[in-house]
Write a structure and sequence with these properties.
The protein has about 325 residues and is of the alpha/beta class. The protein has helices spanning about 10-15, 20, 40-55, 75-85, 95-105, 140-155, 165-170, 175-180, 185-190, 205-220, 235-245, 250-255, 300-315, and strands spanning about 1-5, 10, 25-30, 60-65, 85-90, 115, 130-135, 180, 195-200, 225-230, 255-260, 270-275, 280-285, 295-300, 320. The chain is built from 13 helices and 15 strands. It has an 8-stranded mixed sheet. A 5-stranded parallel sheet has the order 4-3-5-6-7, with helices on both faces. α3 crosses α6, α9 (about 185-190) packs parallel to α10 and α10 (about 205-220) crosses α11.
Length: about 325
């Protein structure tokens, strides 16, 4: 079972929301395909990913380029796999050009890469200052690196990686991978909340599709309070009743959900605030609804403080909305 920060166990679908039922997290492996590396893949990497999945109580898909089948451009599929992967493991042994090309793509996609090699001295200086796991291609050496990879995969999936894992994360002036968040990522953030969730004009459909397991567990078992600040429209009561029905929570749990309404013209954008004024504080702003693909942008510093202050002012002036 995968365990929350508070120690409450949860199952696969509860841990990652409904999206996890459709597609498991992906660990994409970048490495040479030569026969001498087969044991590294089968005995070390794949078993490490499997062990990490067991510890989390979920399924994780492990795949490398030569396992991609079907028509179409193989390069397109490789790039797409790197982009969508939750974890990328790269074996730099032998300084294979294709491996380093794909590694460069992975480094542009975020702080999710684990690098391994049989010879640290041979690794180019561009990446040598970053975390490298050295291993021996012996049964004993593969057992050791398997254990280290299991820990590394868990750190990434649980969001415990704090330092940059590559030079792109370290030096690029604007790191969109640090501020752009997918819905799936936001579900994970919601799992880590410790006190309250504040929302301005939330996307109720998203709550129903992706967040319902997180919300249900948060208000039922973890005693997390939710504040919904919504534009005053005719559909508000109906939408919130629908959310309560889908969650299937009892009256005591639903009391942790507070709803207030304000003039629709006062709502400029959708905001989610986790654990305001605490060390766990996270503030997210949704991209324009006109965009074809929706993203959430993490706000920090003065912008985050301004959003929190605006939320508190609006909440103070808003009207209670009875859900009974």
């Amino acid at each position: 079972m995968y365990t929350t920060l508070s120690g409450v166990p949860r199952s696969n679908h509860e841990a990652f929301g409904d999206a996890a039922l459709k597609q498991s997290p992906l660990c994409y492996v970048v490495m040479p395909f030569a026969a001498r590396f087969r044991a590294t893949y089968d005995i070390a990497i794949k078993l490490a990913v499997s062990e990490a999945a067991d510890k989390l109580g979920i399924k994780i898909t492990c795949r490398r380029g030569d396992e991609i089948i079907g028509p179409g451009s193989i390069t397109r599929e490789i790039v797409n796999s790197i982009y969508t992967a939750d974890v990328v493991i790269a074996d730099l042994s032998g300084n294979n050009p294709n491996v380093f090309y794909e590694l460069g793509i992975a480094h542009c996609m975020g702080n999710k890469t684990v690098m391994i090699t049989q010879d640290i001295a041979a690794v180019p200086f561009d990446v040598s200052p970053y975390r490298l796991i050295r291993y021996d291609a012996t049964p004993e050496g593969l057992a050791v690196v398997r254990s280290e990879l299991t820990v590394a995969v868990l750190e990434i999936l649980e969001g415990r990686v704090q330092q940059a894992s590559n030079p792109v994360e370290d030096f690029v002036p604007i790191r969109y991978t640090n501020i752009v968040c997918r819905f799936e990522d936001l579900v994970r953030h919601e799992r880590q909340v410790g006190n309250e969730v504040w929302l301005i004009e939330p996307n109720i459909d998203a709550d129903l599709k992706l967040f319902r397991h997180a919300i249900k567990e948060n208000i039922e078992r973890r005693s997390i309070n939710y504040r919904y600040l919504l534009p005053d429209t005719k559909s508000i009561l109906r939408n919130m009743k629908r959310l309560r029905d889908v969650l299937g929570v009892d009256e005591d749990a639903w009391k942790r959900v507070a709803v207030r309404v304000i003039n629709p013209h006062m709502v400029e954008s959708e905001v989610v605030i986790y654990d305001a004024h605490t060390e766990l504080e996270k503030v997210f702003l949704r991209s324009s609804p006109e965009e074809e693909h929706q993203f959430w942008f993490r706000m920090r510093g003065s912008r985050a403080s301004a959003l929190i202050e605006r939320y508190e002012d609006l909440w103070h002036d808003a009207s209670d909305c009875s859900m009974t």
